[in-house]
Amino acid sequence: MALLRILEFPDPVLKEKARPLDGINPAIEKLIRDMTDTMYQAPGVGLAANQVGALKQVLVADVSSAEEARNTIVIVNPRIIELSDETETAEEGCLSVPEFRAEVERAVRIVVLGKDLQGEEVEITAEGFFARVLQHEIDHLHGTLYIDHIGKLKRQRYVRQRKKALAANKE
């Protein structure tokens, strides 16, 4: 098990777009295993490759409860092909945006197209919390953080607090 360092805001890699993968090879398989271990250790419910410094379109997620067996979902080159008109606002947090949570509006139901670990095309219909997690992680792959979806004043306040905290840690 190899744990990866999760990049934190304002690391510029988090704002970069990940590149699509042509296929799955042993290095990508290792990245996915390490991302999965890192997500569970954090603990989190999702992790995109660029959060660990790999600009590759890969995400892992698991929204099962603590009482359920792990159910890791891996999607390579994910893209949302359908969003419901119905939306819901709920609080989100992020492993890359420490010490901050905010209300974000997301589609209640989505359909995601991508590939699995065997390179086979998969279509996933997700609702509720699972849909929220997938939208959040796919945003990461496009260089978008959830704080990009909140009001300007809240975002500016967080940015100021984060920069202040980082400066204090350097002293």
Total individual domains: 1
Secondary-structure element sequence? HEEEEEEEHH
**If you average the pLDDT, what whole number results?**
95
What Rg do the Cα atoms give?
16 Å
Q: Number of DSSP strands?
A: 7
Would you kindly provide a written description of the structure presented here, covering whatever features stand out?
The protein is of the alpha+beta class and 171 residues long. The chain has one domain (12-170): Alpha-Beta Complex (Peptide Deformylase). It has helices spanning 26-41, 128-141, 152-170; strands spanning 46-48, 58-61, 73-83, 87-94, 97-107, 109-115, 121-127. It has a five-stranded antiparallel β-sheet. Strands 4-5 form a two-stranded antiparallel sheet. Strand 4 and strand 5 form a beta hairpin. The radius of gyration is 16 Å and the shape is globular. The mean pLDDT is 95.
Structural features:
Peptide Deformylase; five-stranded antiparallel beta sheet; 171 residues; two-stranded antiparallel sheet
What is shown here, in short?
This protein is an alpha+beta fold and 171 residues long.
Please render the helix and strand layout as text.
Layout: H1 26-41, E1 46-48, E2 58-61, E3 73-83, E4 87-94, E5 97-107, E6 109-115, E7 121-127, H2 128-141, H3 152-170
Antiparallel strand pairs: 1-2, 2-3, 3-6, 4-5, 6-7
